[in-house]
Amino acid sequence: MAAPGSRWMLCGGVAALLAGIAACLPSFPGETTTAGSPDATAPSTTATNDAAPQMPAGNHDSSVDGSGTAGGVGDGATLQGGGSDASAVGGSDAAGSSDAAESSDAAGSSDATGSSDAALADAAFDAEPDQAGGCASSNLTCDGGACVDPMTDEDNCGECGHSCLGGSCKTGLCQPIVLGTFPDNGLGIAIDSADVFFTNGRTSVYACPLSGCPATPNAINTGFTNTTQLHYSSSTGALYVGDIGAGTETSLTTSGGVNWQAAESLNDPQGETEDATYLYVGDENQIDRFAKSSGTFTVLANGIAGFVWGVWYDSATSNVFGAVNGTSGGGLIVSCPVAGTACTQITLATNGPAFETMVIGSIVYWVDGGDPAMNNTNGGLFMANSADLGNVQAVAAGASYGFALALTADATNIYFTSGSSGNVYRCAIAGCAGAPTTIATGQGSARAIVTDSVAVYWVNDAGQVVKVAK
Questions:
Q1: Given this model, what pLDDT does residue 345 score?
Q2: What does each C-alpha distance from 463 to 181, 188, 362, 444 come to in angstroms?
Q3: Among 17, 229, 386, 430, which is most exposed with the fewest C-beta within 10 angstroms?
Q4: Where do the domains of the chain lie, and which CATH numbers do they carry?
């Protein structure tokens, strides 16, 4: 409790106060006080703090499929320190006191109002910050007043309301969750609103809920020889599966039934993309085209010098872009009009294979494995304008990003994998200054990656299907 001002002196204990505080008070020139009555008006002491500081801004996801956050850490939340009471008012009885009429204070005394010692003591006590029960300076006040640590809280990881979807939170980043384990390496992955589907390069296509797999993932179809990539079409509700062993492309229901199978003796069916009518499939030396409803087959483009491992349909240009592992070494990016005219292609200066590609706005992105003669240390994520493919820029390249294998994106970020580091990275579409954020480590060669509004999913060479909250 703070001591009263020097003008006032305590005299005696509680009994003396109760008997008459005025008897203890000194008189000052020009001032009269009616004995036995405290002053009519006691000062109101208000203890206020400066506005609570905001958490510094940070990186948060938003979503080409529509989700995420662009704001800073703790949007709409403030740090809660040991705050003072909003107002601490000490006062005496106002009613029934003769001080208002009799005291010369009202007539110009420098002491405008009086107060009893008890009132001043209460005001001083209430003005002190109340540290008990307050949040630490690095914490957030979330969920209607709950104090949380955004570095570790699984439901408020990095910011209020950011759930890790059952995963842990470490240093403000959600940690990956293994949804399930299956035989052999993961090669293809796709999702719908309820399930994740994946292939392992062997005979089966698997499925399990987005929330997690049972001990043994459900093999919805086991009739393949050597499955590769996998694509889900929301327009047809079908899964499309390439089989390099049998040279086929197959349309499945999400429960595993066969809609159609095109046995066209394909050489190496890999990446898949679609427009409103057709499914486009990367193949050796060509890009194949199938009617989504029937499987009717034509060749969109041929004469491509390599294996087209990744494809992407761009509606703005009506072109299919392909990422190519060149047959004579090195890689290519090709742009092939769906009208069937000749493709445009560039040879990559990195001398590494291009594995997957996608187009966002007018920019073509691709992952580059890097030059094997340099231990893939010049691989990574690259981009070029779709109208000027020869003007290539590195988004994130170097030893940490080498042997880059897969990529996906949402409205705000690009996500890609690196076989050299075994990491999964996030880079803002607006740019990440060559230093993307690591969202997962220890993933080996993660060969395929997809995203929805809340999470990123991939398969790795440990036979795992994994997700992490955005």
A1: 92
A2: 6, 11, 36, 10
A3: 430
A4: 1-48+84-134 (no CATH), 169-469 (2.120.10.30)
Average model confidence (pLDDT) across the chain: 79
Phi, psi of 400 (to 5 degrees): -70, -20
DSSP strand pairing (319-326 vs 297-314): antiparallel
- Of the candidates 260, 264, 244, 271, which has an alpha carbon nearest to the alpha carbon of residue 295? 260
Q: Within a 10 A sphere around the Cβ of 262, how many other Cβ atoms?
A: 21
The pTM score is: 0.71
DSSP state of 225: S
- What is d(CA 390, CA 276) in angstroms, rounded to the nearest whole number? 29
459, 469, 422: which is closest to 168 by C-alpha? 469
Both tokens assigned to 273: 């993309």
DSSP-assigned letter for residue 310: E
Distance CA 407, CA 196 (A): 17
Residues in Cβ contact with 437 at an 8 Å cutoff, skipping those fewer than 6 apart: 59, 173, 425, 426, 427
What's the half-sphere exposure (Cβ side, CA atoms, 13 Å) at 417? Answer: 26
Which amino acid, one-letter code, is at 11?
Answer: C
Encode pLDDT of 455-464 as tens digits: 999 999 999 9
Does residue 177 contact residue 165 with C-beta atoms inside 8 Å?
Answer: yes
> Which residues, at least 6 apart from 13, have a Cβ–Cβ distance to it below 8 Å?
none
331-337 and 344-347 strand pairing = antiparallel
Sheet-wide strand order for 464-469: 177-181, 464-469, 455-459, 448-451
What pLDDT is recorded for position 133? 54
